[in-house]
Give the backbone structure.
Amino acid sequence: MAKKKITVVGAGHVGATTAQLLAYKKLGHVFIVDVLEGIPQGKALDLMESAPLENFDSRITGVNSYEQTANSDIVIITAGLARKPGMTREDLRDKNAGIVKSVCEEVIKYSPNCFMILVTNPLDTMTWVAKNVTGLDKHRICGMAGVLDSTRFRSFIAMELGVSNEDVHATVLGLHGNDMVPMPRYSSVAGIPLTELLSKEKIDELVDRTKKGGAEIVQLLKTGSAYYAPASSIVNMVESIVLEKNRIVPVAAYLEGEYGIDGIFMGVPVLLNWSGIEKVIELPLTDEENKALQSSAEAVRQSVAQLSI
Ligand code: APR
């Protein structure tokens, strides 16, 4: 099988870590794009020099323009500002919208048939901007957030119970921010519902930590936001696409009536494979869960409405 071509826009913490994992997992040739001269080239060369030890044959190329990214199969957008302590993701909105717009205009000129994954925050709004600029079909564009929020929830559950991460499954719906909707009822350990294993108080505590998971890292790092778990989450999605795994994962997908939500991106479970988002899975929700999801959707609508581009 010919190697896939994967472009990562943004050679910062998230972009470079993503490129590293893509190479180490042998998922394709990787192009790293950034506005900063020398940074993508330097990081790409550094990664190439690890190839004999890490045993991969993919090419990693760093560039400052988009010609060489032509006909990419997958494009991952991480370009933009990251949070500092005290900032919400929404505080990044207008600056990052301008960056995402200009990046997408270039990407789509050269890779009109790509599958696009947005990572820049505020995620759900940036994915909306990217869809508008590129005109990509809703099956070919999504945002990465649900996998990250779920892996955070999973790790907290595994730490609490002292069990293997492998056995923990967790679902998080909704936007990537304070109004996300962790779903204990759809979370389990080796098939045992989470609600059978932990008290309501303990689950509430883990849910709250999950909602604030990004901020907890920002507070510790002080100079930026998380990148190891975000990069792993992106690459987990890419694996599902490239290896045609048909995984069901939560992503920010464009909804047209599913869950009673229309015209925005929202974190929901989807079936992900080489064709992209094959379908949105509609989970039965309790009134309380649905209320939380609808208020999450309302927050995204407001964010989109306030865009100044
Ligand atoms: N085109 C290409 N790259 C750009 C552009 C642009 N127009 N504008 C900025 N960049 C690059 C920067 O030069 C920098 O190398 O984006 C990179 C961002 O890297 P970091 O500052 O390290 O930020 P990072 O931690 O990678 O986060 C990037 O992902 O998770 C989200 O909230 C996070 O929005 C943030 C994004």
